[in-house]
Design a protein that fits this description.
The chain has helices at about 30-45, 70-75, 90-105, 125-130, 155-175, 195-210, 255-260, 315-325, 390-405, 410-425, 435-445, and strands at about 5-10, 15, 25, 50-55, 60-70, 110-115, 140-150, 210-220, 220-230, 250, 265-275, 335-340. The chain is an alpha/beta fold and about 475 residues long. The chain has 3 domains: about 5-210, von Willebrand factor, type A domain (Rossmann fold), CATH 3.40.50.410; about 210-285 and about 310-355, no CATH class; about 385-470, no CATH class. The strands form 3 sheets. It has a 5-stranded mixed sheet with strand order 5-4-1-6-7, with helices on both faces. It has a 5-stranded mixed sheet with strand order 10-8-9-11-12. Strands 2-3 form a two-stranded antiparallel sheet. A hairpin with a 3-residue loop joins β4 (about 50-55) and β5 (about 60-70). The protein starts with a strand and ends in a 27-residue tail after the last helix.
Length: about 475
């Protein structure tokens, strides 16, 4: 799950921090940098596959370090940051949204860690204005954490807490029907010190960045693996209960990819094998040692006392990966696809709990739906849209069809699509949300707009979140 560190570099972050040690000269910005470095240390040990970006903000928002897995780039950038002027948190969140949408789109869950000093730069009226201007809820699944670099007795922090709580609530309340993103939190410091900041950041890491390890088994073979990103409980609409992933995954059979198709998935995770002996030391610690005649090494240790190199130990994941890999010319990895709960997750295969071993001598069809027949989810190129990204996917497809029709000279097709959208709008049931009819009417009117009807470079945009009927073009 990609992470954005949103760091406040406003002038108030340059205020000195009072310490008992006169040799230490800290500002709120250096305390924040120490907390961010501890966060990067944690990821280096537990979540090295994470993508992290550093974004700074004051009255403007700037991408200091784009998304990277090389955390050293962020460490080197922190001491070089320049201070800004005032704090504009609403503009910062809008800038982060643009970055996330350009890099990850609408369907990838992300996390945002806001590191600020608790000074929002305004009174009660200013706080209300900021809340009204927040670009939340976001059009993508997100959870936002706030780390205020401030003393718990600071009146500025007390004044800012309602704003921070509103940010966390708005980020969690919408666009999270899939349950793949848990709730964000506010991590206040016990006191304004470097140690307290690192402790608060450690609590954040332990709650939201812990690695998920489990056992992968197939008959007598098993291996310890890590799933990345960490799976979360499934609480989708229509489910009678909350489903969590077991820490023991059992392989009970195999099926060809073209027969499985692309069923709707709750989440997908990389399966990363772990060292069999549980030792997390670096590879250089497993250097070979020259043995003596009595079997011991030069430094006096026996082979039994030496730590075995994990690369020399047989691992079931390596066997499984080699058996399933179709072509050695392309890089591949083991991927765990978590389907929707129930035996009907892939209807074209029939009830999953009734699948058994195939009869290689039989010529009859093995599954209820023949493999040559086209069915929903049966193609490898099929991609299922999540509810929060449905509008963006429809907009993308509408623009693609429109450009293709204009480029090939089938301008009448654009008018026919507009008419079809109007018919769909008129046929909506009374229980449909008002947004549906407004968006359909807006799309139909945009397709027939004479100013842009034949402009192949024009891009249709959906109505914004605060749209009204009067905002539709006529």
């Amino acid at each position: 799950m990609p992470t954005v560190i949103l760091l406040d570099v406003s002038l108030s972050m340059s205020r000195p921090v009072l310490t008992l040690d006169p040799t230490e000269n800290h500002t709120r910005l250096t305390v924040a940098a120490a907390a961010i470095n501890s966060f990067l240390d944690f990821l280096s040990m537990h979540s090295r596959l994470e993508y992290v970006a550093l974004v700074t903000f004051s009255s403007i928002c700037e991408v200091a370090v784009p998304f990277t897995r090389d955390f050293e780039n962020i460490r080197l950038k922190l001491p070089l940051l320049e201070e800004g002027d005032k704090t504009c948190l609403d503009l910062a969140l809008a800038g982060v949204s643009q970055l996330i949408l350009s890099e990850w789109g609408y369907q990838t869950p992300v996390q945002i860690i806001v590191v600020t000093d608790g000074n929002i730069g305004g009174g009660s009226i200013g706080r209300s204005r900021i809340i009204q201007g927040l670009p939340l809820p976001a059009p993508y699944p997100v959870r936002i954490h706030v780390l205020p670099i401030a003393s718990p007795a600071d009146p500025c922090l007390t004044h800012a807490m309602p704003l921070y709580q509103k940010i966390v609530d708005l980020a969690t309340s919408a666009n999270n029907s899939s349950g793949n993103v848990s709730r964000g939190s506010i991590y206040c410091l016990d006191q304004l010190t470097v140690t307290a900041a690192i402790t608060s950041m450690s609590r954040l890491c332990e709650q939201h960045y812990q690695e998920f390890t489990c056992t992968l088994k197939c008959g007598q073979l098993e291996a310890r693996v890590q799933l990345f990103p960490e799976p979360h409980p499934a609480v989708h609409e229509g489910y009678a209960a909350t489903y969590t992933l077991s820490n023991e995954l059992n392989i009970i059979g195999f099926v060809h990819q073209n027969e499985l198709g692309t069923p709707i998935a709750v989440s997908k995770h990389l399966v990363v094998p772990q060292a069999q002996n549980g030792n997390s030391s670096n590879r250089e610690n497993y250097g070979s040692k020259t043995p003596t005649k009595d079997g011991s090494s030069i430094d006096g240790s026996s082979p039994d006392e030496e730590v075995a190199d994990p690369s020399k130990i047989a691992n079931f994941c390596v066997l499984l990966h080699g058996a399933l890999k179709a072509s050695r010319a392309r890089r591949s990895c083991l991927l765990l696809c978590v389907l929707r709960p129930g035996a009907a997750a892939a209807p074209w295969l029939g009830p999953l709990d009734q699948l058994g071993a195939g009869d290689e001598t039989s010529t009859s069809e093995a599954f209820p739906v023949r493999s040559w027949r086209s069915y929903s989810g049966g193609g490898a190129g099929c991609a299922w849209a999540r509810p929060h990204a449905l509008l963006a996917d429809v907009q993308k497809e509408l623009n693609r069809v429109r450009r293709a029709a204009i480029s090939l000279g089938f301008s009448e097709l654009v008018a026919c699509v507009g008419a079809a959208l109007e018919r769909e709008c008129a046929a909506l049931p009374a229980s449909a949300p008002p947004e549906c009819s407004l968006q359909l009417a807006h799309a139909a009117a945009a397709l027939r707009d004479p100013r842009t009807a034949l402009d192949v470079k024009h891009t249709l945009q959906p109505l914004g979140p605060n749209f009204t009927v009067a905002s539709m073009p006529h």
